[in-house]
Amino acid sequence: MGRKIFPPQIADTEDDQQKGNDMTTAEAAPAEVDVAIIGAGMAGTTLATLLGNAGRKVALIDPHRVHHDEFRAEKIGMQQMELFKKLGLDKMLMPLVTPFTDIHVFRLGQFFACEKKWEYAFSYGALINGLRDALPPQVPLTVGKVTEVSTGPDRQRLVLADGSVINARLLVVATGYSEAVRRAIGVERIELSKAHSLSMGFDLAISPREFAYQSINCFGKRAKDRVAYITIFPIGNKMRANMFVYRTVAEQWTRDFRANPQKMLCELMPEISARCGNFEVASPVEVRQVNLTTTAGHRRDGVVFIGDAFWTTCPTPGVGIGRVMIDVDQLHSVHIPRWLETPGMAADKIGTFYDDPVKVASDEGGMRASIYAKRITTETGLEWRARRLRNNTARRLMIISRKVRHLGPRRAPGIA
After folding, report:
1. Can you state the angle between helices 42-53 and 320-330, rounded to 10 degrees?
2. Could you tell me where the DSSP H helices lie in 175-277?
3. Which end of the chain lies in a sparser environment, N or C, as judged by fewer CB atoms within 10 Å?
4. What residues form DSSP beta bridges with 296?
5. In 10 A of CB 229, how many CB atoms?
6. Does 327 map to a domain?
7. DSSP state, 41?
8. Closest to 200 in 3D by CA, of 257, 122, 269
9. Enclosing domain of residue 41
């Protein structure tokens, strides 16, 4: 059978040990499947749905039946929704999101534009649980912890904590940021930019009905603030804020923000504070540190890594879910059907996915956007100061032009 791994009770998340009561097998997994998927997040659940609907035998495995509350992505754009529509997943997704349009953008402390485009907001845990509930009957969620993995050029063997065994032709690792399964298989995460950015999420006390606009995006004004932008949008009957900054969890600035977010927001963005109910905050501030990473040692027999289990980018440019779903699309529509047509599952066969130009462009484009977004916001070298000056000059001219158009031509007194 090739490579054998015997990890001691693989834990997929740091708090798994506290959630052991979730880890009983709800339904017996198929003994023989085409594809076994470890991780029932966005990537794993959508891929399992698509493969199941296509008639493949699939085992979807996760330590928890119910996904715990977790601060992750909370909004997708129209382009990403079009990808869900292409895959036929939009009917699953739409009942789980809050759609909105009319996004009022503030730059340089002033109203800049109203963007007419659809966006869709959600709570990540609720979204994943909704997707799991919509799994086709032929793809039950197997709740259990993987304790043994054997991979090879023909068959992959998984043993769960309760002793049940799953044999598959292909193993897909879709465990997101979790490291245990990746490490057990021998795959290394390479950090390109440690503590690259910090995402912050919190609820506002004001309701969507009371809020001045459907949604607001307000960009930072000064490089020294290290603030990319704050976006405020509705999720159900509450207004939610996501703020993206180039800070670390350990900084005093972060501790001060978590202690008194209202005060710091009013100081950073006084131009929109009144529109937000003066930034009265109604929940604790959740934070998530983001590293930019790639993967080494992934070209091996029988196993493929997708989404954040393979490559991580920054949420600031808003490319993460699109990148994950491109992985799912290319695997489901191109690679897995081809792989299953012929015997074997050797590394050279798996490598066609990693070399797929659509996937490569998605991953590398997301990484470039992540790095550029930070540099254009925070870099103080001459080149980047000149770029910001150019961009901001163009924006000021656009703001002035809009104001002139709004005022219109003035008539001289007494002239009809």
Report:
1. 30
2. 180-185, 252-259, 261-268, 270-273
3. C
4. 188
5. 20
6. yes
7. S
8. 257
9. 3-72+124-191+292-372
Q: What tokens does 372 get?
A: 């550029």
Report the distance separating Cα 141 and Cα 40, nearest Å.
Answer: 8
CB 27 within 8 A of CB 197: no
Report how many domains make up the chain.
1
Residue 396 lies in a domain: no
Confidence at residue 401, expressed as pLDDT on a 0 to 100 scale:
86
Evaluate whether residue 153 is within a structural domain: yes
Q: Is residue 54 part of a domain?
A: yes
Strands (E), 108-245: 110-115, 119-121, 141-143, 146-151, 156-160, 165-173, 188-204, 215-219, 227-235, 238-245
Number of alpha carbons in the 13 Å side-chain half-sphere of residue 65:
9
CB atoms within 10 A of CB 415: 5
Phi, then psi, of 82 in degrees rounded to 5: -60, -35
Picking from 361, 366, 357, 365, the residue whose alpha carbon sits closest to that of residue 335 is: 357
According to the model, what pLDDT value does residue 304 have? 98
For the stretch 158-182, what's the b/e string if a residue is b when 16 or more beta carbons lie within 10 angstroms of its beta carbon? bbbbeeeebebbbbbbbbbbbbbbb
Asked if residue 245 has pLDDT above 70, the reply is yes
How far apart CA 326 and CA 362 sit, in angstroms, is 7
CB 38 within 8 A of CB 146: yes
Question: Residue 377 and residue 388: Cα distance in Å, rounded?
Answer: 8
Using only C-alpha atoms, the chain has a radius of gyration, in whole angstroms, of 24
Chain segment 177-205, per-residue pLDDT in tens: 989 899 889 999 999 999 999 999 999 99
Distance CA 348, CA 325 (A): 23
Q: CATH number, domain at 327?
A: 3.50.50.60
